[in-house]
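[audit] Reproducing an earlier prediction to check determinism. Same input, same settings, fresh worker. If the tokens differ from the archived copy the diff job will pick it up downstream; this log only records the rerun itself.
[audit] input (138 residues):
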Amino acid sequence: MELNTVHHFDCIEGMHQLPDMSIDLAVVDPPYGINFRSSNRKKYPLKSSDGILNDELDNADFLESVIVEINRVLKTNSHIYWFTRWDKVKIQQPLLEKFFQVKNSLIWMKMVGRWVISEEPTPDNMKTFCFARKAAGT
């Protein structure tokens, strides 16, 4: 696989092409397991209007397969940022903890364009992510 190039393919297929312990950092925004459907765009529907692949409500097995492969390709003492929704941390953090030392959970208050979605924290304007480290022997 050519390095320093953007590739567009399934993440599992792409990671299978990488050698063990060859990556310094993983920034991951997986399907959250919320069965998302978009209804915002009528003229040009998004691919997500029919749903996001592997986003069924119980997608823990899929997420664990992603984490296993990330663990294989990450170097020792490297890091992962795992994006999720606030209400999915309790399901996804234990999956991460099987392979990584979770160091912190962070909240990102998002904006849309130049406007804040809401002054109050809501699931629509917050992104939660877990920051974790791959320790030796994992």
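[audit] rerun output stored. Observation attached for the diff report: The first strand starts at residue 23 and ends at 28.
[audit] end
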